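ingest -> fold -> write
write: protein_1
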Amino acid sequence: MAQEMEFRLLGPLLVNCRETAVPLPRGHQRAVLAALLLSANQVVTVDGLAEVLWGQDLPASARLTVQNYVKRLRIALRQAGRDRIGTRPNSYLIRVDTGELDIPRFEVLVASACAAARDGSWDQAAADAAAALALWRGEPLADVESPALALREVPRLAELRLQAVEARLEADLRLGRHMDAVPELQRLTRTHPLREHLHALLMLALYQSERQGEAMGAYAAARQSLIDELGVDPGSELRELHQRILAADPSLAARRPELSTADPAPAAVPRQLPGAIAHFAGRVGELTALTTLLDEADSSTPGPVVISTVGGTAGVGKTALAVR
């Protein structure tokens, strides 16, 4: 069942009421709303909201300005159904029901995907990770004018998103979808060259795709990046996987993808003769010879298979004769 309202921060700030976008004031009002949503159902002080907008360099009218912003937001959200922003002593609180805000939903799905991966429930891990990533519509807080919020929230959300990506890709490998995962893993290891688990997944995907040489090359590249950037060798995960690939460990072999019972059966391929022409004339001698051969092959005495060839230039009626 769809939520009455939906608040979305994993991309540009968006508020929907019964699947219709709610017009929101632009500028600092959006930053105030984002700050309240990031602390949904908890009090946020006026001073805290002011710091979100101006940092430590507060204007003299900061408190009054924040109050005016909240007033405008109240009006916008009230038009969508009911009062959402409550007043407390020197603070405000926005009421959000379970499932209405995308960030908590995302966090729950990521935790579920990671737990399923630890338990080896790869179908569940893939489904939860995909559902978590589907909530993203771009950079979080993309149109919110607040460096303080961006510094506080965006790195944490980006890390969780990367965990979801890793869980989905690992599930893909475990479910036999290694070939599809290789291009994405190659891109991710270039973007995050110090993230060893991504390198391990790339090595495994390449190995399962029967590209052992490239898997060894991926290990060498990961090792060099770690040495160049941090002055350290790869950790135990990469080193152990490297040795297992060298030893052709059978447990690393790709799993054959399973067909879902919900998949439709393959369509039957017709195997039949072309249709006969409406009017056929002539070729009496040829028809007599072919019919005689068929009659002989139809006897009860076992014998060789009879094969006849009809020859001639294009358009003389070879197919029509054979069908007849």
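write: protein_2
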Amino acid sequence: MANTDAFRRWLRAGALLAALHAPAILAQASRVTRAPWGVTPGGDTVWQYTLVNAHGTTVRAITLGAILTNILVRDRDNKLDDVVLGMPDVDGYLTKSPYFGAVAGRYANRIAHGRFTLDGKTYSLATNNGPNHLHGGIVGFDKRIWTGQAVKNDSGAGVAFSLTSADGDQGYPGELRVTARYLLTDDDRIIVDYRAVTSKPTVVNLTQHSYFNLAGAKRDDVLGNVLTIYADRYVPVDSTLIPTGKLSSVDGTPFDFRKPTAIGARIDANDEQLRRAGGYDHSFVVRRSGPGLVHAAQLVEPTTGRTLDVWTTEPGVQVYTGNFLDGTITGKDGRRYARRGAICLETAHFPDTPNHPSFPSAVLRPGQEFTSRTVFAFGVRRRP
């Protein structure tokens, strides 16, 4: 009996010690490793960083495009699966990828006719989307080799990518020095921090362009995902997906996601905006009462229970429902990516902001620092 009582006291003491030191144990469990992943046609080695937290959630990112290649999170049955679309190799990302997982920039989204005027001078940019400039041009940040550095703090483990864009790159003024940091925490958040400084007045708009399918390999579309967007207004577009300049109410339209709604519920409604984009490809005006992080959107996948909450300091979130995927891209694990096979939740300034003075400004000047934060918080909704 004495030995049994002692054993029980030892167990209780061990449990107490574990509870007292749980944060330290979790921090030690978070880790980041690096390995070569491929080589570009120019001979540059592409490195992949793997971030793992205390209970196995795994994020992988490469120095090409600061691309998030994999995000493995658990479902309600505790099974890990990859919830982002991507390519199997370097060539795929360079030649076939529609910005899967990349940092898009210098200016994410579209600029009309590849032109904008700043301080009385007009700049002409590379056009790569019909008549317009898209996601930084022909060789945007998604096609560039970044420098990676492992980082770790009390919150978790991560990687910081850095890049210098030369004065005149794709037509933009000023040398721009950029960092994009991904930090994986032990409560399954990916904290994305952007910073940039410039040598001349310029425009900057950065976003993370992951294509999410929270069902992982279980479904080929996201139409059954339930979406909530904390926005009362959205940005209507013309036939080339350039903003008209208005910020329209979502009330009474297929763009009203203020209450949880299946993505596919109204995606094919008789609506001119939906016809122009082939679905949702619009920026929503995130509801806010002041600066700082605000809740922009929530995505729930009913069959697996996985959830994704998006928080941001940006004024908008571009919702894109994979309308231009058509089954011709073969991605990771030999999967063909079908139309509407994923959803992008791109936190950013609005499209074509440099040509719309009424939109929140995207101008960055020497002596200033561009900063932006987005948090992708993953969770699980249990069965009732």
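write: annotation protein_2
The first strand starts at residue 31 and ends at 39.
Helices lie at 2-20, 22-29, 90-95, 272-277.
pipeline exit 0
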